[in-house]
User: What shape does this take?
Amino acid sequence: MIRMTHHVMPTTAVLLAAGQGTRMKSSQPKVLHEILGRPMIAYLIHTLKTIGIGDILAVIGYQAEKVAQALAPLGVRFVIQEPQQGTGHAVQVAMAAVPPETDTVLVLCGDVPLIAGESIQALMSLHRRTGAAVTVQTVELADGAHYGRVVRDAAGQVVDVVQCKDAGNRPDILAIREINTGAYCFEAAFLRQALAELEVSPVTGEIYLTDMIKLAHRSGRRVEALLDPDRENLLGINSRQELAQATQTLKRRLNEAHMAAGVTLVDPETTYIGPEVVIGRDTVILPNCYLEGRTTIGEHCRIGPNVQITDSTLADGVLVKMGSVITESRLAAGVQVGPYSHLRPLSDLRAGVRVGNFVEVKKSVLHPGVKANHLTYLGDAEVGAGTNVGAGTITCNYDGVHKHRTIIGEEAFIGSNTALVAPVTIGAGAYVGAGSTITKDVPPGMLGISRARQVVLKRRAVAKKEAVPEDEPLTALQLGRALKHLNLECDPEVMEELAERFTSQGVATVLVFQAMATPENLTLIRQMFILAGEEPSNYEMVVNLANLIASLKRQD
Assistant: This one.
């Protein structure tokens, strides 16, 4: 556990958060990309406050207003860097807002959310113990990639940090494995004086904060470097892949802490728990669950699988079944929810309530023992203790302009497929008949029913189509029946002629006729007429079918 530390010498932390983060391929400011529901920079701010650093100054630029709005609740101050001309320029802008009494300036990158409080304290401790003008945090990598290389002299002292972009023709620099993480401690007086001496890079047009190390060395001031072993958590997030990696690292860290505290995570790899979530002992979390925001879950609960809970409070012994979504709601002890329930904001389920499959609750109080087990919507409602709400019940709370409340008393019974048109009150112990649309209050103990009277009528007989025997000779009569099935009925006076046309081509039975009168052949005939700009009559369709059969026989 990190203990609160009170520094004798005042410290200001400057967080570099002005960049867009072009490698993220996003219109969103980089530091606002979330890890487990919280902007990445918020983790760094929380860590600084945990170790006792209260004066935190964020340098913002890209979409500054949006960043300031997101971070304002976290208690930080802001300066705007416009335009963004590099890390050195960012600190130049920030120093105007650093209090005169500040002794030490801690500079950190806003895109390094997982840096530990111990790493920051170790950097500050080395800086103060040695009296250095600059102390830089470093790590060793197998490949320095795009990071700045830390250059040491023969005595092992740090003399420079060279940016990768400026070392393209210097393989000796690119071969260095020690890189700068972007975290520094500065003596405030030296920083104020030396910032004015920084020059613009001829390669990138930016002002580098790393040049402060070279300036300190040239002026004979001490430069220290802390080689930190925690490299996984010290490198910035510059891509979606690195954001996903950081999410997995934090998820694993949080999940391990919950399991160590007595929570069962059946599959930690598929369980996502936010940093502010609190879970009681002996609670079981099944796979594919997302517990977000300021959610608190009591002891002996069972959650999941495939459940999302956000900013909600669950007491002891709550059961949340598969596929349920709970947002800004309160569930008392012994409540059962799901499967596939949706509790929208301001749902208040008291002790022992049961809300079942495909039930939605919004801005409603369900008093102890209420049951709504199937296919129900309860919005802007108060349901008394022990009431049973039947399947298919809805509170019609919206009239197109305003929302209205539904009040249901204790021990009431609401029949299935009921519409309660608010504002309306169902008294204690009242019954509502299934299928009712209730628009007026039902007094306590009374029965409310509103539905049309059932009428039973004799069913009209519908003649069935006469079947056509398939092995019958193709007479005029049988041909007529077959054509009727094809919706090609013709005048009875032409049936003898049509039957002769088919029999002369060897179509002697109904079965053979049906084999030739296929949908494909009939469609072909119709398309020929359409191409000619005509709509064929039934007679023309049948005659052309006989002609098509003759043509096919000639081809054989």
In short: The chain has four domains: 11-233, 261-362, 372-454, 476-555. Residues 1-8 have pLDDT under 50 and may be disordered.
